[in-house]
Amino acid sequence: MSALVPQALSIRLQGCAKTFRDGTRALESLDLSISAGETLVLLGPSGCGKTTTLRLIAGLEQPDAGGKVFFDDTDVTTLGIEARKIGMVFQSYALFPNMTVAQNVGYGLRILKMPKTEQQVRIREMLAMMRIEALADRRIDQLSGGQRQRVALARALAVRPQALLLDEPLTALDARLRDALRVEINQLLRSLGITTIYVTHDQAEAMALGDRIIVMSHGRVEQIGTPREIYHQPGSAFVANFIGSMNQLRGVVTPQGFTCSAGCLNWDRSGVAERVLFRPEDVSIVTSSEFAELTGVVKASFFMGDHTRLLVDVGDEAPITVLDDARCPQAVGQKLYMRVAPLGLMSI
Ligand SMILES: Nc1ncnc2c1ncn2[C@@H]1O[C@H](COP(=O)(O)OP(=O)(O)OP(=O)(O)O)[C@@H](O)[C@H]1O
Ligand SMILES: [Mg+2]
After folding, report:
1. Domain boundary at 200, 221, 242, which?
2. Do 181 and 223 sit in the same domain of this protein?
3. Which residues of the chain have pLDDT under 70?
């Protein structure tokens, strides 16, 4: 399969800011390097500048003066999208409704004036890769969302792009299909070794797909790192709260540890901490007060299928979230004794 991609491309943005004509500052000056073959995920809330960044890379927008886009060592800042040899899949798929599946997949090849017989071979190859051969002659409006998504990917890959830009390609799908396609896209990207920039606001998707993740907010980069770094070593309160769920307790560092209204946590790091953060999965429920670091009262309980999610009042501003057994969870109103894994404690 790797023969499909002639050579993966590295991409570099240098001082790329974007101010739209109406004065909207969509992107602050961004420096970013994407290695050849890497899958980089842009993650952040609505309006933070994800699509704008993608459009700058695609050549659909120009950066403000001084910004530069490099493909390998070539400055492509002034090149349009046709010259950039990029495959793009938009959130809405942007398929041609009046064409069949095969015609959609072959669209870019016709633009490239590839000989007809070669086009047929390539189209068949792409349909097979996406396992939609049987749909070749269907119209787009006769397809399900997941099938459309595959056609959009096949169309983007048919021209053997040097890089693939995906803008929330799974958002329109239901959760189950999204999970399944996420796995498929992951395998596809790994087997093709194609440089990919994947935009999403879904953090589970970002974790599953990204070699690295960029978390953005208000046109700025909050953090760039591997999924594990972003999850376990969030660089800011924004990142900590945006990715996964996070508990927070206020207190003071004492000789005993981190002392808060609910008890005392095992905190032996130097320096002052006025609040500590930890994830629900790092809290364990213990049976006796003797082993407890924190004491609280169960305020609410949500059955999630594979576990029960408890909201526990510990006398702080907000309750903490604790994961409990699926089959016999603690009852609401019950007193709860807890410990927190020392490695899971963070202060930001
Ligand atoms: N053509 C435009 N003219 C003016 N402002 C724009 C234009 N396109 C985008 N913006 C603004 O720039 C900011 C960033 O937009 P962008 O589309 O990059 O966000 P996004 O992160 O992709 O959000 P979403 O998750 O909702 O797709 C937003 O405030 C948006 O309103
Ligand atoms: Mg967008």
Report:
1. 242
2. yes
3. 1-6
Residue type at 28?
E
Residue 175 and residue 60 share a domain: yes
Q: What is the pLDDT of residue 3?
A: 47
- Strand, coil or helix: 107: helix
**Residue 57 maps to which CATH number?**
3.40.50.300
Distance (Å, rounded) from C-alpha 197 to C-alpha 203? Answer: 15
Together in a domain, 101 and 83: yes
Asked if residues 342 and 283 have their Cβ atoms less than 8 Å apart, the reply is no
Residues 219-229 have pLDDT tens digits of 999 999 999 99
DSSP secondary-structure letter at 67? -
Tally of domains in the chain: 2
Q: Which of 52, 167, 215 to mutate to test the pocket of ligand 1 (most atoms within 8 A of CB)?
A: 52
Nearest protein CA to atom 13 of ligand 1, as residue: 26
The 3-state DSSP class for residue 300 equals: strand
174, 172, 175, 179: which is closest to 152 by C-alpha? Answer: 172
Residues 90 and 233 in one domain: yes
Cα–ligand 2 centroid distance for 105 (angstroms): 24
Q: Nearest Cα to 140, choosing from 98, 168, 173, 171?
A: 98
Same domain membership, residue 262 and residue 210:
no
Q: Which amino acid is at 125?
A: E
